[in-house]
Design brief:
Layout lengths: L1 H9 L3 H16 L4 E4 L20 E4 L3 H12 L6 E4 L15 E4 L8 E6 L2 E7 L4 H12 L1 E3 L10 H5 L8 H4 L6 E8 L4 E5 L4 H7 L7 E12 L3 E9 L2 H13 L8 E8 L31 E11 L5 H13 L8 E7 H5 L1 H12 L9 E6 H15 L8 E7 L16 E7 L7 H19 L4 E3 L7 H8 L3 H11 L18
Parallel strand pairs: 2-4, 3-4
Antiparallel strand pairs: 1-2, 5-6, 6-10, 7-10, 8-9, 8-10, 11-13, 11-14, 12-13, 12-16, 15-17, 15-18, 16-17
Bound molecules: flavin-adenine dinucleotide.
């Protein structure tokens, strides 16, 4: 089998033979799923970022972990082939690509696992690494009235894809990121071994794979913690003119006990003007509640800040009880009088809110524009400087998309996972989610992102890139800091030939 693979790769006329040989490969790998030739315009050569494109050798749609194991072992038998798991391809910088290698479309395994269990008295669900979070949500709520505790804003992402990064949204201040909400994984390592791991069973692989950027194994199954799903959500936005007041309230809310705060806390920066994408209209939750700039103080600057909050409740709760609880929480906040907007939506409707934005953006033709996005974690100690330089100067005219900023608590993250974080207990996620029309402005925006990162480094900010993308080993070493040695050791243990996730550009494929 392996010999056959090597022959195809090395033949000088391999291109012309590929179509014939793909069936030979299929048979020799003994795949239950399917395989097709890599294509420059196929899904495996692209991602959501739209910034990079490479040509894979083959695209494989595995039927499960055994197929994936066979592909990894076959790649290991060649001197240079690599294997990239592709979740839903929502990376920005080619992280799920494999130039001249195998791309494994994890979506073909999306339905493989869906089993409710009780672990230590608490409900959990076993789901496939290739399942979309939106499908996990729908199935858990409709079948069991239960739901995962920690989410991402957008749910057309795969379980394995977000667990390989962290998975962050407005619930993470309470429950930690998605990587803090799984108790067991099944992983295919870079040696092709199918291994079950948890905090107590193969813990190095378990914690390594969580936030591991796909470097140590391909997650084929995850056991996700569940809780009772609420029926409804009161979704609220309140506006601040001053950054210090915004951060004071945001930090207060994420530091309170569960029954003394909201169930979701996020925030964003927007322009103090009537631009439909970047300005006042971007705050409106409800067409009847128009943003009235007359409420703003004279001192308001070029950008304003919005806290986005959610309060969960059940259909059986008395409306007056919900109103009172929300009023009490909102009453403690120092936002600009009159600049509040709120709406009641179903829990599913709330969690699927970005799906609706996606549908609108697709209808307007902007969803498929390039996305030179930048995501950072910035320590509370540096966030005022960041605001002064980046929000108030560099991007003060908006970026043609959301500029998220909200606080997270380091103590809710497990330091044994592979995720790199700033030092401080409170740090902010900052996400510059640009939608840029194809053309020369894309490169300008990529350069603008680079400037921001360079500025953070020059000023010695306590920060990390989230969904990191570096090219040079030195940058990766700096990114991981004192965790680099552990990261390298894990690589040597679980993927010694550096076969997996080559699109992250951390390690070079070796033949040892
Ligand atoms: P891919 O992009 O396909 O893969 C990402 C990386 O993980 C690659 O290196 C790939 O090889 C590896 N990988 C994929 N599947 C597996 C697997 N099963 N096992 C091991 N490695 C694997 N992130 C947040 O945290 N919070 C958000 O709110 C959020 N919102 C987003 C909104 C949009 C519109 C988009 C495009 C992205 C958002 N993200 C968010 C980022 C998202 O978490 C990443 O894009 C992530 O990579 C998941 O995407 P994916 O499933 O498509 O994975």
């Amino acid at each position: 089998m392996i010999a056959c693979l090597g022959r195809i790769v090395h033949d000088s006329d391999a291109e012309s033979k590929l179509d014939d040989d793909v069936s030979t490969i299929f048979n020799s790998l003994n795949l239950q799923g399917s395989i097709e030739n890599g294509d420059v315009s196929g899904i495996a050569s692209k991602d959501f970022g739209g910034l990079y494109s490479v040509k894979p050798l083959y695209l494989i749609r595995p039927s499960g972990a055994e197929d994936i194991s066979r592909v990894v072992k076959a790649a290991a038998g060649t001197p240079h082939l690599t294997v990239a798991a592709r979740g839903n391809g929502h990376s920005i910088n080619g992280q799920a690509m494999a130039d001249g290698g195998y791309v494994i479309d994890m979506r073909s395994t999306g339905e493989n696992h869906f089993k409710l269990l009780t672990v230590n008295g608490s409900p959990c669900i076993d789901v496939s690494g290739g399942a979309l979070w939106e499908d996990v949500l729908r199935r858990c709520v409709s079948r069991f009235g239960l739901a995962p505790r920690s989410w991402t804003d957008y749910l057309s992402l795969t379980v394995g894809g977000t667990l390989s990064n962290a998975g962050v949204s407005g619930q993470a201040f309470r429950y930690g990121p998605q990587t803090s909400n799984v108790t067991e994984l099944e992983v295919v390592t870079g040696k092709g071994d199918i291994t079950v791991c948890s905090e107590t069973q193969n813990p190095e692989l378990f914690f390594g794979a969580l936030g591991g950027l796909g470097q140590f194994g391909i997650i084929t199954r995850a056991r996700v913690k569940l809780q009772l799903a609420p029926d409804m959500v009161r979704w609220i936005r309140v506006v601040y003119a001053e950054f210090e007041e915004f951060t004071r309230d945001a930090e207060f809310l994420v530091s309170q006990k569960e029954d003394e705060s909201f169930d979701y806390v996020e925030g964003f920066v927007f322009c103090n003007n009537d631009d439909p994408v970047n300005g006042w209209p971007s705050v409106q939750l409800n067409p009847d509640q128009e943003f009235n700039p007359a409420h703003l103080p004279q001192t308001a600057g070029p950008v304003l800040y919005c806290l986005e909050l959610a309060f969960h409740y059940r259909n059986s709760d008395q409306p007056s009880t919900v109103d009172m609880a929300v009023s009490r929480l909102v009453g403690g906040l120092g936002f600009v009088d009159g600049l509040i907007s709120q709406v009641d939506v179903s829990y599913m409707g709330f969690l699927l809110r970005v799906k609706r934005a996606e549908q609108d953006a697709k209808a307007n033709g902007v969803w498929d524009n390039p996305h030179p996005w930048l995501n950072l974690f910035v320590s509370k100690s540096d966030i005022v400087d960041f605001d002064q330089t980046v929000f108030k100067k560099m991007v003060k005219n908006g970026i043609g998309g959301p500029m998220l900023i909200y606080p997270l608590l380091r103590s809710k993250w497990d330091s044994r996972t592979s995720v790199a974080l700033p030092e401080g207990e409170i740090f902010y996620i900052v996400a510059l989610l640009r939608f840029v029309p194809k053309g020369p402005s894309v490169e300008k925006k990529v350069a603008e992102n680079r400037e921001i990162v360079k500025w953070c480094i020059k000023e010695g900010l306590d920060f990390k890139l989230y969904l990191p993308h570096y090219r040079a080993k030195e940058d990766w070493k700096r990114h991981f800091g004192n965790q680099w040695t552990r990261f390298e050791k894990r690589k040597a243990n679980f993927d010694p030939m550096a076969i997996l996730a080559p699109g992250q550009r951390i390690f070079k494929r070796t033949n040892q």
